[in-house]
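Re: that chain you flagged

S.,

Sorry for the slow reply, it's been a week of failed gels. I finally had a moment to sit down with the sequence you sent. For the record, here it is as I used it:
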Amino acid sequence: MIWLTLVRAGTILSVGTALIHLIDQRTREINPSRIYSTIDAARFLGASRKMIVELVKNNELRGKLVRGNYRIMGQSIIEYINK
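Prediction finished late last night. Pasting the structure tokens below so you have them in one place:
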């Protein structure tokens, strides 16, 4: 019974996350308080993921390495666009 509840909760969370991601892609608005992956940042900036990684490494775009992947705050993306 507990496992069934956990699976259902996991499914609900996955669907919710997917919906949020889809809404972000459709609206193309950057949420300053949201954390984005390098792929998302690349879509917003019209660049490649590799270029985003280089920008983070060169401290032109603020990001943090988490488990081998960079995470970038929406505010940092907005600041980079406004430069």
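What I noticed first: The helical segments are 2-27, 38-45, 49-57, 74-81.

Talk soon,
D.
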